[in-house]
Write a structure and sequence with these properties.
- The chain is an alpha/beta fold.
- The protein folds into three domains: 20-436, Na+/H+ antiporter like fold (Up-down Bundle); 478-502 and 544-681, 3-Layer(aba) Sandwich (Rossmann fold); 729-794 and 806-862, Rossmann fold (3-Layer(aba) Sandwich), CATH 3.40.50.
- It has 36 helices and twelve strands.
- Strand 6 and strand 7 (706-708) form a beta hairpin.
- The longest helix has 33 residues, at 225-257.
- The chain is elongated, with a radius of gyration of 35 Å.
- The chain crosses the membrane at residues 30-47, 59-77, 89-110, 122-147, 159-184, 196-220, 226-246, 267-300, 345-367, 379-398, 410-432.
């Protein structure tokens, strides 16, 4: 090397030295990749926002974003493709996208629960088979024309017609199971006959479709028929090995690590992902696509204890937010709508769409009709089974990579996938609306006539209705519906216990001590020969008079794990391991309450509709809504407690906009009585210097410059709970008149049947010239408000007075009627109950402050 030679080091200053960040550098491709990924993700999110308003899946936005960024639209701008998507950078983008595809197919396998197929195998096999055979057959018919017209185009390999026919048939017959689950969940169809059948048939369609695709890829990649046979035999042996050897060992490993009980740890997640990647590697090197290996591992992962759901929660965000948009946008980049430029091509496009849609709908509808479903239900199943979605695009991309399809035929099938997926939700809503679902449900219960829609007259049903009304008059709350929330669970349990009359437990005796000492008597004893003590216990232990139905609402998000939770609620017995439901159920058993608790996973905007529907279906007497202390629908308290401590009342009622909207929606639409349960604000003790100690998390508190970490003697661990020595609940009910307040009085009468409850009913009379009485009845500390929405009961009666038609005369009549009503109630009480309930009267003259709080303050002062 000469002394004049110099070694030039590449400039490291970046844009500060004038380098172009969009220029592709093979030694440092991360810059151009970030630019590409950022543009793709932003485009996908922007397009999905308007499409989500019409309930379209995200894959539609991702493919359309690719079409816009590709040669069809923005690719026509000079220099755009070379600057943003240079040819040399596409392999790196493909690598990341295909890695995400393997992980996504692993998630699809996790989401596919074979129990749906096993539990409903008859209808699932019939609908799935009919939904695949008819589209497959018609797809083979159109494959003949496609093969002879487009097979010689650039980018394809010379394959025999049988392989091409198999691939086109698969593309026509396959159904997008993940998109199908999302649509069924958003339309609330999972609990209907349509949802159960579609879910079961979709599992079978999904599994068979991937197996046929693996067969097709093996035939394309194999040089000879003998090689293809060996590939298939190795694949079958690999599946048998995974099923009968790997899966039992994997289950044993998960049980030993506790992953089935408490969820997968980071090490278990890493091991599972490595197994999925190793399986993808093996299927790729034997001549089958790598996605098949990831799918098989996901399919074999256990669903016990919610393991599949918890594992999905760990990795789904990265796959859905980053990897999948890249893959499906690449599909759009390879779609060139400009190639659809002749009448012949458009004729094939229309034919492909018509066959893919009508064959799927006809096959699914006919099979469903033969299984006994109505025509509307059958056609709804057919429309849902026609959804192609992202699975179809994966199949098409495999065909393009294997050079089975040319770019033109690939574009034709992409258009078909977009059209069929886009039409699924609107057509399902039109064919199977909510009113039709209610009508079918009532008709199958024998409540209405199908043709007229009128109720079926029945003496037995009339007698039961009359009996129900009589019981309702005797006891206002026999059926209680409770919205279960973690932050209001303690108050809910307390009020539910008070509504049920307390019965002192009877002294029990061990059964062995009651046995007869005579062995002969023991041998002749039968279950029918009960002892006198047992008969006495049964007589004194009547059935619970209060039925409590608790509903736990979980938010349905856009994550796959949320959809899996909905689809597997029954199979996983989710309510059995939900902590809130378990606590409420255990409380009911301890207090002899008849409790039914369930879990519903719905979007947050559907919370109110769900509660209203349950109240209507259960003929609820009282719906109890606990007030949200957090100010939102979330049950978790905010870490910022300063506003609550400074002004707890204002924060509770002003900053609760989301929950207020939910409560208002329930009050506006429900037809039963509604109670808002507001907890008392805990007293924050004074620290002796005029300052309040702020409760903190984890024992950490801040006091005017002193930091207390807690843990030692005398450390402050929050608000102390002092044991209650006098377990007496006192209710104050201001009575203003009207059907709402009359129900509130009857509710108080039911509460004081419990000997630990006392009550004071204050009849508030507004004098002439005063303000109108507040409409909400407030029970201090226990019941925040009761609102009666029933049309047929509790209307206030008025007697004919001598005051003519004047307003003051009418008001005196109403007040007199209320006084007579309260007096009749007071006189009807027995001595034991009357000792715990006091009736008072408060007359307020004109000029009183026109607000509920002002009147209630006067009531409290009067008491």
């Amino acid at each position: 090397m000469s002394s004049n030679s110099t070694t030039k080091v590449k400039a490291q200053g970046g844009i500060l030295e004038g380098s172009n960040p969009a220029h592709y550098d093979s030694s440092n491709p991360i810059v151009i990749f970030i630019i590409q990924a950022g543009i793709i993700i932003i485009f996908c999110r922007l397009l999905h926002w308007p499409l989500s308003k019409i309930r379209q899946p995200r894959v539609i936005a991702e493919v359309i974003a690719g079409v816009i960024l590709g040669p069809s639209v923005m690719g026509r701008i000079p220099g755009f493709t070379d600057a943003i998507f240079p040819t040399a950078s596409i392999p790196n983008l493909n690598l990341v996208a295909n890695l995400g595809l393997v992980l996504f197919l692993f998630l699809v396998g996790l989401e596919t629960n074979l129990r749906f197929l096993v539990s409903n195998w008859r209808v699932a096999v019939s609908v799935s088979a009919a939904g695949m055979i008819l589209p497959f057959g018609l797809g083979c018919a159109i494959a003949y024309g496609l093969y002879n017209t487009f097979q010689d185009e650039p980018g394809t390999v010379d394959i025999n017609f049988g392989t091409f026919l198999l691939f086109i048939g698969i593309a026509m017959a396959i159904t997008a199971f993940p998109v199908l689950c999302r649509i069924l969940t958003e339309l609330k169809l999972l609990g209907t006959n349509v949802g159960v059948i579609v879910l079961s048939a979709g599992v079978g369609n999904d599994v068979v479709g991937w197996i046929l695709l693996a067969l097709c890829v093996a035939l394309v990649n194999a040089g000879t028929g003998l090689t293809a046979l060996w590939v298939l035999l190795v694949c079958v042996g690999y599946i048998l090995f995974l099923t009968f050897i790997f899966r039992p060992l994997f289950l044993r490993f998960l049980r030993q690590t506790g992953s089935l009980q408490k969820g997968p740890s980071q090490s278990v997640v890493a091991i599972t992902l490595l197994i999925a990647l190793a399986s993808a590697f093996f299927t790729q090197i034997i001549g089958i696509h790598a996605i098949f290996g990831g799918f098989i591992i996901g399919l074999l992962c256990p669903h016990e204890g919610g393991f599949a759901i918890k594992l999905t929660e760990k990795i789904e965000d990265l796959v859905a937010a980053l990897f999948l948009p890249l893959y499906f946008t690449l599909s759009g980049l390879q779609t060139d709508l400009g190639l659809l430029n002749t009448g012949t091509v458009w004729g094939y496009v229309v034919g492909i769409i018509a066959i893919a849609f009508t064959a799927k709908v006809a096959g699914g509808a006919l099979a469903s009709r033969l299984c006994g479903l109505l025509w509307r239900e059958s056609f709804s199943i057919g429309v849902l089974m026609s959804c192609k979605g992202l699975v179809e695009l994966i199949v098409l991309n495999i065909g393009l990579q294997a050079r089975i399809l040319s770019t033109r035929t690939f574009t034709m099938f992409v258009v078909m996938a977009l059209v069929t997926t886009f039409a699924t939700t609107p057509l399902t809503v039109a064919l199977y609306p909510k009113w039709y679902q209610v009508k079918v449900e009532r008709w199958r219960r024998g409540e209405i006539d199908w043709k007229t829609g009128n109720p079926i007259p029945s003496d037995a049903r009339t007698d039961s209705i009359a009996l129900a009304k009589q019981q309702q008059r005797a006891l206002p709350v026999r059926k209680l519906l409770v919205y279960l929330r973690l932050d209001g669970l303690s108050s809910i349990c307390t009020l539910a216990a008070l509504l049920s009359p307390n019965r002192p437990p009877l002294p029990k005796q061990h059964p062995d001590t009651l046995a007869s000492p005579d062995p002969a008597a023991e041998e002749t004893a039968t279950p029918a020969n009960k002892t006198e003590e047992e008969d006495q216990d049964e007589d004194q232990d009547p059935k619970p008079t209060l039925q409590v139905h608790g509903v736990r609402l979980l938010e349905l998000t856009d994550r796959d794990s949320s959809v899996m939770t909905v689809s597997e609620l029954d199979h996983l017995h989710y309510p059995l391991w939900d902590p809130v439901v378990n606590t409420f159920r255990a409380f009911g058993q301890w207090h002899d309450l008849s409790i039914v608790a369930g879990v519903s996973v719905v979007p947050e905007h559907s919370y109110a509709d769900t509660v209203v529907s349950m109240a209507r279906d259960d003929s609820t007497d009282l719906l109890l809504l606990p007030w949200s202390e957090t100010g939102s629908m979330s049950e978790h308290h905010s870490l910022d407690l300063s506003s609550v401590l400074d002004d707890p009342i204002a924060t509770r009622f002003v900053a609760s906009a989301p929950y207020t909207a939910f409560a208002e929606s329930v009050l506006r639409n429900v037809r039963c009585n509604v109670g808002l349960l507001v907890e008392r604000t805990p007293r924050i003790r004074n620290n002796g210097r005029g300052l309040r100690d702020k409760p903190s998390l984890g024992g950490l508190s801040i006091r005017s410059g002193n930091l207390n970490l807690g843990g030692g003697i005398g450390s402050d661990r929050g608000l102390a709970v002092v044991p209650t020595t006098r377990k007496v609940h006192h209710i104050l009910l201001p009575y203003f008149g009207g059907k709402d307040d009359r129900f509130a009085v009857r509710l108080v009468l039911q509460l004081i049947r419990n000997d630990q409850v006392t009550a004071t009913v204050v009849h508030v009379v507004i004098g002439a010239g005063g303000v109108a009485a507040p409409k909400a009845a407030v029970a201090a500390g226990v019941l925040g408000g009761v609102r009666n929405r029933k049309k047929d009961g509790g209307s206030t009666s008025s007697s004919s007075g001598d005051g003519g038609g004047g307003g003051s005369g009418k008001k005196r009549d109403v007040d007199d009627s209320d006084a007579v009503y309260l007096a009749a109630l007071r006189d009807s009480l027995d001595e034991e109950v009357a000792a715990r309930m006091v009736f008072k009267k408060l007359v307020l003259a004109g000029g009183i402050e026109n607000s509920s709080s002002g009147v209630v303050e006067r009531v409290v002062e009067h008491v």
